[in-house]
Design brief:
This protein is α/β, with parallel strands linked by helices and about 375 residues long. The protein is built from 11 helices and 11 strands. Helix 1 crosses helix 9, helix 3 packs across helix 4 and helix 6 runs parallel beside helix 8. It is globular, with a radius of gyration of 20 Å. It starts with a strand and ends in a 5-residue tail after the last helix.
Length: about 375
């Protein structure tokens, strides 16, 4: 089988972990492949994906081979596969729009971005690059809050005839207009806002579901997160967090059974701690009542490398998008989106989302 040809928007930490993973798993056997939810989807293994186009706006990345650019500052994620062959694909200058928060300019160069002096790409140039590269799936790794930029690249994907995996909390798959347009074009879309393999929100959801199933009334809860990568630095601008906060909060609210009052739930990013680099620390508290109306509480601290924690989920989302392309299925993929994303077009419990996704992969369900 030929490789799945992908284009990446945003060659940051998440892209670095993903691209390293393609090579890391190349010589692995299924029984030795730690960290994957699926070794094979539709005949495609974890290394059957290749980057054929990439876009960024940082001078340290634009013009460089993708497999070199992923190690450039301000990327700071764990390097678990150092020796990568040349990808023979250069990172192209993208379109900035709202892809950079203004306050990022106030931080040292090593911690933020250095804008390239190359001319910004136009809509026509991005579409042409996608078409000439014969990309099949566009992966959106833009920073949180990139509302205009995310929609710009979604429009480019539609015109170029490319499927979309939207990893950020800008609502594309869950926007009825975009959903219909991707459906009409016969292009699958998986989104929005990727869940980590074992991260803060998926853990919060599982515990919330456990409370509900065990008859514990959840009354108050918070999820506080700190990290030191550019994602957390970007999110110091609270004006960029509206969709992120909605996405994470609704991911938890959707499994409570009975919604928690807005004043009693806080789910969202909290602060930037530079020395944490790509390490993300989650502080979780849940307060409820047991049998006899007796109070209880749970506190949890979770520490993970943020970007590798999402890369395996991205690999599965890409392969599901390609599987839909192979089957001629367009529009939002409801089952994979519900399993892989925080804000899918339709929310299901994680158990149901898992079962539906397995059915989709096996061909027992269209979307």
């Amino acid at each position: 089988m030929e490789n799945i040809r992908i284009a990446i928007v945003g060659v940051g930490n998440c892209a670095s972990s993903l691209v390293q993973g393609f090579e890391y798993y190349r010589d692995k056997r299924p029984e030795d492949a730690i960290g994957l939810m699926h070794w094979e989807i539709g005949g495609y293994g974890p290394s059957d994906i290749e980057v054929v186009a990439a876009f960024d706006i940082d001078v340290r990345k634009v013009g460089k081979d993708v497999n070199e650019a992923i190690f450039e500052p301000p990327n700071c994620t764990t390097v678990f596969c150092e020796k990568l062959p040349k990808a023979r694909v250069q990172v192209q200058m993208g379109r900035i729009l709202d892809g950079v928060a203004e306050h990022m300019q106030q931080y040292p160069d090593a911690r933020t971005f250095l804008p390239s002096d190359a001319p910004e790409a136009t809509h026509e140039e991005v579409v042409l690059a996608l078409e000439q590269s014969q990309a099949e799936v566009l992966l959106n790794y833009l920073p949180v809050g990139s509302e205009e930029a995310a929609r710009f690249y979604a429009e480019c994907a539609l015109e170029a005839g490319v499927a979309l995996v939207n990893c950020i909390p800008v609502f594309i798959a869950s926007d009825p207009d975009f959903a219909q347009r991707f459906q009409e074009r016969g292009l699958p879309i998986v989104g929005d806002d990727i869940k980590a393999q074992l991260g803060a929100t998926i853990t919060h959801r599982m515990l919330t579901d456990l409370f509900r199933k065990r008859g514990v009334k959840l009354e108050r809860t918070y999820q506080l997160n700190t990290g030191g990568n550019t994602d957390f630095l970007n999110m110091l601008n609270r004006d960029r967090l509206a969709s992120k906060k909605e996405s994470k909060t609704e991911a938890v609210q959707s499994v409570t059974g009975q919604r928690i009052a807005d004043d009693n739930i806080h789910v969202g990013p909290s602060d930037y701690v530079a020395w944490q680099n790509d390490n993300k620390v989650c502080f979780l508290r849940m307060e409820g009542r047991l049998f006899g109306d007796v109070p209880m509480n749970l506190e949890l601290r979770l520490s993970v490398e943020d970007s590798p924690n999402s890369a395996g989920v991205s690999i599965d989302a890409i392969r599901c998008a390609k599987l839909a392309l192979d089957r001629g299925v367009g529009g939002p993929l409801l089952s994979p989106s519900s399993y892989f994303m925080k804000h899918p077009p339709e929310q299901f419990t994680d158990d149901e989302a898992y079962t539906r996704t397995e059915d989709f992969i096996a061909g027992r369900r269209d979307v």
